[in-house]
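Example for tutorial group B:
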């Protein structure tokens, strides 16, 4: 048996429904630099462009949380 054989069933990503809770979690993780953009977008079921636009909106309406 070939150990390098690809199982194509495992390559499919699960479909994630975009919910306000998922978007909030992703934005907070992006803001605190716990996640990168691709991971946050996948968590929400969005494209990276949609996640970027959503995060820009998050930055507009949420105050900074650090002392500079």
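The residue assignment follows.
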């Amino acid at each position: 048996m070939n150990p390098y054989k690809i199982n194509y069933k495992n390559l499919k990503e699960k479909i994630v429904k975009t919910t306000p809770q998922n978007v909030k979690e992703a934005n907070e993780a992006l803001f605190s630099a716990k996640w990168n953009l691709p991971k946050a977008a996948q968590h929400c079921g969005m494209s990276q462009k949609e996640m970027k636009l959503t995060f820009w909106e998050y930055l507009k309406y949420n105050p900074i949380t650090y002392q500079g």
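The CA atoms of residues 31 and 59 lie 8 Å apart. Compare this with the pattern of hydrophobic and polar residues in the output above.
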